Amino acid sequence: MTMTRKEFLQTAAGAIAVSAITRIASAAAEKPGPKRGVSAYSYVSDLNVNCTLEDCFAEINDLDTRNYDLGLEVLTGVVEDYPNPSDAWVKKWHDMCAKYHVKPVEFGHWIDSKLYNETGPYLSTEESYEQLVQDIKVGSKLGFTHGRTKLGVIDQPGMPEYDTLTPVRNWREIIKKALPVAEKYNFRMLPEIHAPTLLNSKILEDYIDFIQKEKTTPWFGLNIDFGVFQNITSARGRDGQPGGMPMKEGTYSKPEEIIALLPYVHCCHAKFNEINDDCECPNIPYAAVIDILKKHNWNGYLLSEYEGADKGSGGAFAAVRKQHVMLKRMLGEA
Fold first, then answer.
1. What backbone phi and psi angles, to 5 degrees, belong to 71?
2. What gap in Å lies between CA 38 and CA 75, rounded to an integer?
3. What is the CATH code of the structural domain delimited by 5-331?
4. Domains of the chain: which residue ranges?
5. Of the residues 94, 109, 146, 194, which is catalytic?
6. Whole-structure pTM over 0.70, yes or no?
């Protein structure tokens, strides 16, 4: 059964979540340290079906804080007439950001390396660069200073490294070519480190080596998706297996492995697929991860990204609200 945002707010769970989160009516200055935000991808199943983009802004505003405006991530698909939005639409966008006290933080975009062929040859360096520059300009026009710059991947069934999200071979050349443009538009290009990629892996070693050798900070860095820390299977199970079981060590990253990466991490996806009625995430060690971010004075946004089983049936609104109760508690904002 699909539940709209309005219907959720009328339920008991909705009332509890609303009362647990302090709402403000005026914009607030950004504070240092870890900050909360939302990826509108969480609401993608409801967007333009049960709610409008402005409804999503209003929903995020309901999660607000006394200390700062909540961060926002959107994908290119929400941009009307992408990649050439009208001036009127851009103005409406900025008006909504101001009205609902939402701060554009990360623009979710990607290089469509497999545009012509699934197995190669892929887009050339020049073609990839042109796509990247196009999205940097669109994101900047909308006020975004970070991009979830998803590089094309080359893993294929049958390859030894299949499903490790190995980027295209020429990713270094593409990024190097785009660095001056990113600096010009104040835009940080951040590939997402997403399960099953591990923080202790060859892919991360390659990224850090490139960042250090080419001195790309801050224009090229990392986005860490907290799904890499998931150490217990979903309570609902998967592929016929029982749920709620500890995962095999070596198939997930440990919280402390993020410490060495923090100088290069500019945004995080606060991924979760379960949240209980006590506003706790049972299969990702959020308390340990947030504690590390606080202790190491990490300054960035935690963008809620819900991928639960009920995401397609109206469950995202309740889930994100519960997660923000948890995050406020952990960040000392409650």
1. -80, 160
2. 12
3. 3.20.20.150
4. 5-331
5. 194
6. yes
